[in-house]
Automatic annotation (TrEMBL):
Residues found modified as 4-aspartylphosphate: D55
Domain HTH LytTR-type span(s) in chain numbering: 170-280
Record-given protein name: Response regulator
Keyword DNA-binding recorded: yes
Annotated ranges, domain Response regulatory: 2-115
Record-linked Pfam families: LytTR, Response_reg
GO molecular function (one): phosphorelay response regulator activity
Annotated GO biological process: regulation of DNA-templated transcription
InterPro entries hit by this protein: CheY-like_superfamily, LytTR_DNA-bd_dom, Sig_transdc_resp-reg_receiver, WalR-like
Coiled-coil ranges from the UniProt annotation: none
UniProt KW keywords: DNA-binding, Phosphoprotein
GO cellular component labels: cytosol; protein-DNA complex
The organism of origin for this protein: Hymenobacter ginkgonis
């Protein structure tokens, strides 16, 4: 597997490189290219990569300018820091991404999906073996971007961010009845067996018709934080934080989550961002 990294943050590039070597049996990493100009030079010099890991904001502009200067036919995995306006632009245009700091499990799922999309018997995947791969059909891999989608993304990302408006309430169903639950009544959301549940502050649970990714863009990031892939919590619901093994943090939520789900952990990759969110 030949991967090209376009990333202007040295720490992020080193981490992504280390994770890729950990999960791909045979891997060559090109770059990292820290600018659009460097990325264009690497792509023009060849060989063509099997996958492109593309940060959005680079030192000399938006990485989308790459597509205007060189033909890119390989799958693209976008990486971006948490930015509500950018995420909304991606969702509107049906483009997927990995949030930085990149979660190891999400990267592994993306690599597995990449392997499935390329196909197991093509020349590009000779020796392309994912260590401990997981089954996923929702990992963020974009096989190709048409000109219209790119133009829309560039336009939205270059415009000043509008005043953000976030959801203030959710309509949930209870039997044949509908009930309105305000954001102030939400303790947290969690995913269970492919269903997203709203846990209210009074201890009740309701099914909501949103994915965790959609909720991230709909809720005020000053109030809610994505602790891990399964939990999105309101700060008022976090009653205690405990140091856990491997530099992770355990959060004590109220009301308590189902015991069968185990402790609610903040992954090591998100600990620094989580601390900054708490200390803003």
């Amino acid at each position: 597997m030949l991967a090209l990294l376009v990333e202007d943050e040295p720490l992020a590039a080193r981490r992504l490189t280390a994770l890729l070597h950990k999960h791909v049996a045979e891997l060559t990493v090109l770059g990292p290219a820290e600018s659009v100009a460097q990325a264009v030079a690497l792509l023009q010099a060849g060989p063509a990569p099997d996958v492109l890991f593309l940060d959005i904001h680079l030192a000399d502009g938006l990485s989308f300018e790459l597509f205007e200067q060189v033909a890119i036919t390989c799958p693209v995995i976008f990486t971006t820091a948490y930015d509500q306006y950018a995420l909304r632009a991606f969702k509107v245009n049906s483009v997927d991404y990995l949030l930085k700091p990149i979660d190891e499990e999400e990267l592994q799922a993306a690599l597995t999906k990449l392997r499935q999309r390329i196909g197991p018997n093509t020349p590009e995947t000779t020796g392309f073996s994912i260590k401990g791969s997981v089954s996923s059909t929702n990992a963020p891999v974009v096989p190709g971007l048409d000109a219209a989608t790119l133009a829309a993304l560039v336009q939205q990302l270059r415009q000043p961010a509008p005043t953000a408006t976030y959801k203030t309430q959710f309509v949930v169903r209870i039997g044949e009845h509908l009930k309105v639950v305000t954001v102030e009544q939400v303790a947290y959301f969690f995913s269970l067996e492919k269903t997203t549940l709203l846990q209210s502050t009074d201890g009740r649970k309701y099914v909501v018709d949103y994915t965790m990714e959609q909720l991230e863009t709909l809720l005020d990031p000053a109030q809610f934080f994505r602790l891990n892939r399964a939990y999105l919590a309101r700060q008022a619901a976090i009653h205690d934080i405990i140091h856990y093994t491997n530099s992770r943090l355990q959060t004590i939520l109220k009301p308590a989550p189902p015991e069968s789900e185990g402790p609610v952990l903040v992954s090591r990759e998100k600990v620094s961002v989580f601390k900054s969110w708490l200390d803003r």
